[in-house]
Amino acid sequence: MASAIWFVLLTIVAFHLSAVSSGDVGINYGREGDNLPSPKQVIDFLTKNFSNKIGLIRIYDANIEILEALSGTNLVVTIGVPNEAINYVASSQDAADKWVQDHIITYVRKGVRFRYLCVGNEVIPGILADCVEPAIMNLHNSVRKAGYDFIFVTTAVAANVLGTSYPPSQGQFAPNVADVMSSITHSLYSMGSPLLINVYPYYALVEDPVHIPFEYALFTSRTPIRDGHLEYYNLFDAMVDAFVAAMVRVVQREDVKLVVSETGWPTDGRIGYAITDYARTYNNKLREHAIVSGRTPRKADINLEVYIFAMFNEDLKTPEEEKNFGTFYPNFTEKYPLWR
Question: Is the predicted pLDDT of residue 16 greater than 80, yes or no?
Fold first, then answer.
């Protein structure tokens, strides 16, 4: 039995060393809908029909039905500690150890290929902000004690943690979160973990259409926006590099790590902006950019790892605009050509 477990672990380690050696694109699998297929149906569909196209998946909690379905598959998994569990895992090392035992160790032994363990989603700023770093540190200790040096503990933040994002080279954390984000950035850097960032050119565009050209948000601009010696042909790269600048400003080193844990474009919602044609253009251009280029103007070594939001429309999400980011219908047909 012990030798079998070690074989599984060695296989997982070898897989992770090669899983994201260049730019790659995965998918966010959320379940805030009342018309969605079962987790087993979803994972079976991805592994049988898109095994060569979608190799990375992000889930937002440790749902047992999903974890059982993922067991023994080749999908590389980002698993979330749900917001409501952050206080618990931050409270003590024993609490974190138990969470990891129940949701990570148990399923690594069943062949789930975890890559990132993400503490919450967009909880900074907020009432849980001060709990995030203790939770990260406790969980990091837990996975390292288990011998899983291929699992990186982190958190996911939105663009609202930046106080300055333009030009990208001037990126810095907002004053109201500067202390907590600086401390987390130092911790992640020391652990070799990336910061997960949710980047939405769509929202930047609809909030400031006067100063942001449509083409720049949709990856179709032929005219760059210059920032010193760097040229930006799309808003996505500029937003990512603003995070890079903010992190570099904290650790005073260029070799910071980031993963784009969410990005996408809705097919319905804001009139004139949220339409299928734009969603198809953005997500296809994004996917091509990540896989072919795999870098941003500032970060030639980033090996872009991007997760498109989302698998399905989720009709129980709020606000209304967040309901229509899905790239598949519940019957598993694509809304528009993207993943083939």
Answer: no
Q: What is the pLDDT of residue 321?
A: 84
Q: Considering the chain, what is the average pLDDT of its residues?
A: 93
Report field, pTM of the whole predicted structure over 0.70? yes
CA distance 44 to 332: 11
Which residues contact residue 218 at a Cβ distance below 8 angstroms, ignoring those fewer than 6 apart?
201, 234, 278, 281, 282, 285
Q: State the Cα–Cα distance between residues 301 and 246, nearest whole angstrom.
A: 17
Q: Is 122 a catalytic residue?
A: yes
Share of the chain above pLDDT 70, in %: 94
Catalytic residue among 133, 262, 305, 314: 262
What is the pLDDT averaged over residues 304-312? 97
The reply to whether omega before 125 is within 30° of 0 (cis) is yes
**Mean pLDDT in residue range 262-272:** 95
Which segments of the chain are extended strands (E)?
A: 24-29, 56-59, 76-81, 113-121, 152-158, 162-164, 172-173, 195-198, 225-227, 230-232, 258-263, 305-308
Over residues 209-233, the mean pLDDT reads: 97
Residue 5 has pLDDT above 70, yes or no: no
Would you put residue 154 in left (φ > 0), alpha (ψ -120 to 50) or beta? Answer: beta
Q: Give the DSSP per-residue string, 40-107.
A: HHHHHHHHHHSTTT--EEEESS--HHHHHHHTT---EEEEEE-GGGHHHHHH-HHHHHHHHIIIIIHH
Quote the CA–CA distance of 90 and 203 in Å, as a whole number: 32
Distance CA 193, CA 233 (A): 28
- Catalytic residue (choose from 68, 122, 321, 322): 122
Q: What distances in angstroms separate CA 250 from CA 186, 246, 276, one per listed residue?
A: 7, 7, 39
